[in-house]
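Duplicate of #3305? Posting structure anyway:
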């Protein structure tokens, strides 16, 4: 089970970073007034 956990973690971490990056980009693109 340990190799699977490491494999999952290695895939989840980049996905979380990408989601964070996309969220920041979305916030920056949307007008602040709305």
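Output from current build:
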């Amino acid at each position: 089970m340990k190799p699977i956990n490491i494999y999952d973690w290695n895939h989840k971490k980049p996905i979380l970073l990408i989601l964070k990056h996309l969220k920041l980009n979305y916030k920056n693109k949307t007008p602040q007034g709305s």
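Confirmed duplicate; merging threads. The chain has a mean pLDDT of 74. The two ends are 48 Å apart (CA to CA).
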